[in-house]
Amino acid sequence: MMRLGLTLAATAVAAWFTYTPAIAADAAATATPKTTSDTYRQLDLFGEVFERVRSDYVEGVTDEQLVESAINGMLSALDPHSSYMNAKNFGDMEVQVRGEFGGLGIEVTMENNIVKVVSPIDDTPAAKAGIKPGDLIVRIDNDPVMGMSLNDAVQKMRGPVDSEIKLTLQRGTQKPFDVKMKRAVIKIQSVKYHMEGSDIGYIRISSFNEQTDSGIHNAFTAFRANPGTKLAGIVLDLRNNPGGLLDQAIAVSNDFIPQGEIVSTRGRHPEDAQRYDAKPANDISKGVPMVVLINGGSASASEIVAGALQDHHRAVLLGTRSFGKGSVQTIIQLPGHGAIRLTTARYYTPSGRSIQARGIDPDIVIEPAKIEKLTEPEFRHEADLKGALKNTTPVAANDNKGGVKGKKGEASLDQDKLGSDQDYQLSRAIDLLRGVSMFNSHASN
């Protein structure tokens, strides 16, 4: 089995379910005779409806269609994240968690029978088209989404590479508008990084797949490749990160937390509760000050990392409240068929918080904003005065460095501006880290 903490990807999966004798045996062992009798009565009802539809429906339908639809309905009634994958779709999902798959690059969930965007994935057709977290998908190629299951919508958004698709979106109170895209092979580079100036390391995680933790290690290797570089701080950007593999979220947390609990999961049965602790030898950050950026597109596995770092007082969280997906899905492979994705537990941060449907509040709330350099009146300075004394003290290496870069940006948080000099939230994080570094430097003198 594979543990996941992600929302349904509109590029890779579809829903299905099948019956397993092992599960039936477990149920029979714990059921009372009355429960067993009620179960058989309900199954008889299902069989009766199944036969009536198969024989009397206005058009011919196959047994496979009927069973699939019935099972899809059963699972979708549980929660937005439980589903079944046939053999093909299960294979697609395995490719996805390895970091490469076909589609639009958009993570979605179902909310009030409407497909809602959790987040576009960096450098994908969805991100390049300007799709944003919170957008509602109203139509797919002019077909209304209302009444579709999430898996039906997922299937309609998938298709051959380079084929065109038109999504009709509702954004806030704006009128619905169309976005045209071409499907593509999605290759996710889970971790991107660069230096901000000579002292701040910036790491962005766009999703948690099998490459994520190794990408974090590569980032620190690159940051420390120059012997003269001394990190004053790290910005870990989890904005618009819809989640992914639980084990990768734990590994990334352990890269910054030297000891203690990272996350715990609690399911239906108390004996199934699990706790995941940090391994002391795995802390590669060496205690460098940190700021973590989150927003409403930060979900699931990214919330595990943010919650662990916040509870351990390892980082300052900056941005806006996260998505609030605090459930864990287990992928159970079914030999000869596909796999079932079943919500089996809730996860809890080290302090015992469940963030399901609540999200994580940042320590410092910073809304997206634009950076604009204003024209300052022309002031005369001391150096401009006739006969002013000269300053003969050598200029320190760090003088006149740092600060916010003053270029015009957009008021909204566009995907292509994340991590750029037009990213207002990132600029505030850098200011905070440099302030901490300056304070520590003065305190040690």
Features:
alpha+beta; 10 helices; 445 residues; Pdz3 Domain; elongated; 2-enoyl-CoA Hydratase, Chain A, domain 1
CATH architecture of the domain at 191-365: Alpha-Beta Complex
SS field, number of helical segments: 10
- Estimated radius of gyration: 26 Å
Question: How many strands?
Answer: 21
Walk me through this protein's architecture.
With 445 residues, this protein is α+β, with helices and mostly antiparallel strands. Among the domains are: 98-187, PDZ domain (Pdz3 Domain); 191-365, 2-enoyl-CoA Hydratase, Chain A, domain 1. The protein has helices at residues 21-30, 33-56, 63-76, 87-97, 125-128, 150-157, 212-223, 246-254, 301-311, 424-444, and strands at 2-6, 83-85, 100-103, 106-111, 114-120, 136-140, 143-144, 164-170, 177-182, 184-187, 191-196, 200-205, 233-237, 243-245, 261-267, 274-277, 290-294, 316-319, 327-333, 339-348, 364-365. Strands 1, 2, 14, 15, 16, 19 and 20 form a 7-stranded antiparallel beta sheet that branches. β6 (136-140) and β7 (143-144) form a beta hairpin. The N and C termini lie far apart (54 Å). Residues 5-33 and 397-411 have low confidence and may be disordered.
Overview in brief:
The chain is 28% helix and 24% strand. With 445 residues, the protein is an alpha+beta fold.
What's the SSE blueprint?
Elements: E1 2-6, H1 21-30, H2 33-56, H3 63-76, E2 83-85, H4 87-97, E3 100-103, E4 106-111, E5 114-120, H5 125-128, E6 136-140, E7 143-144, H6 150-157, E8 164-170, E9 177-182, E10 184-187, E11 191-196, E12 200-205, H7 212-223, E13 233-237, E14 243-245, H8 246-254, E15 261-267, E16 274-277, E17 290-294, H9 301-311, E18 316-319, E19 327-333, E20 339-348, E21 364-365, H10 424-444
Parallel strand pairs: 12-13, 13-17, 17-18, 18-21
Antiparallel strand pairs: 1-14, 1-19, 2-20, 3-10, 4-5, 5-6, 6-7, 6-8, 8-9, 11-12, 15-16, 15-20, 19-20
